[in-house]
Amino acid sequence: MAHDAPLLAALNGDRPDTAPIWFMRQAGRSLPEYRELRVGTRMLDACLTPDLAAEITLQPVRRHGVDAGIFFSDIVVPLRLAGVEVEIEPGRGPVFASPVRTPADVEKLTSIDPDVVAEHAGPIRDAVAAVVAELGDVPLIGFAGAPFTLAAYLVEGGPSKEHLRARAMMAGDPASWHKLAGWLARVSHAFLEAQIGAGASAVQLFDSWAGSLSPDFYREYIQPHSTTALAGHDVPVIHFGVGTGPFLADMRLGGLADAVGVDWRLPLDEAAAIVGGDTTLQGNIDPAMLQAPWEILEAHVRDVLRRGEAARAHIVNLGHGVPPDTDPAVLTRIVDLAHGAE
Ligand code: CP3
What we know:
Strand content: 5-15%
Radius of gyration: 19 Å
CATH topology: TIM Barrel
Bound molecules: coproporphyrinogen III
Largest sheet: 7 strands, parallel
Structural class: alpha/beta
């Protein structure tokens, strides 16, 4: 069992001998063994093929010796399970056949019972169970997309820079917005439950695009729904977003989040002063630094570790995901440094 694992200790507010470390997007294109396995299989098909999803999840744990696996899947997988027509286009991201923009679109989508996600989650449960059996003492982190980050794709119909259409729905038709976000929260909740039920030891909610919101919009239109997605699970939870410095305290969700993720813009000692003494921090190595000469990267990682000491506990990670062109040997070296072996 993974109960004494450093990651879970840190989520519980303890400081294990060395700070636990894992990387967002550690599975994926930075690994040649991943690129090889993915040849000829579409992203969402890979996510729904249990053997493949399990093997891809395990690859970075074996290679880097990180303190956690993150389940290989995608934030739009539960929407696919609910019957929504979605594909992930290489180099672009999630694309929806029918954007959800009008009150009628919202009515139609939300008439789908979110419980169908649980009914169709067999491949997710099988993959998670296979991973957990292989990982032994290393915990598996399950994840889901936060309602806003999912809506940012769904309302637009695909990736966008400022997520204007989703934010315009909040401003112009709050009733439709709350209906849509409430439904997305239940879909993500069901996706998290499937992973927890099959053995995930912790979960992370990704609100990657929350930084496009003002603090007032965040509190009014997002926070209640992200709370719904994360409430009532019996494992520790991490809440992550990019550019959330202006409302970092709100990312605690009133104490529901055991840990809050911080991007590279906000030094961890400043973040610790904002979230206070009852929240673990996760982050915040700048992904751009992965390209720098080792001496510069090493000094940056040591600075992150030192500033992380201001938090009640620290989970070392990047400020956002691993860029696809990252040299994986650099990631392994960062793990060794965090573990005190450099
Ligand atoms: O290793 C891990 O972190 C676990 C796997 C994971 C993926 N997506 C795999 C993936 C996780 C946690 C996600 C979440 C996700 N998906 C988020 C939130 C995290 C973040 O990075 O902010 C978002 C915004 C998405 C939506 C999405 N899916 C995008 C923007 C893209 C990139 C499109 C591209 O090709 O550049 C994807 C595709 C995706 N998800 C890939 C992977 C490994 C690449 C697909 C491929 O290999 O072809």
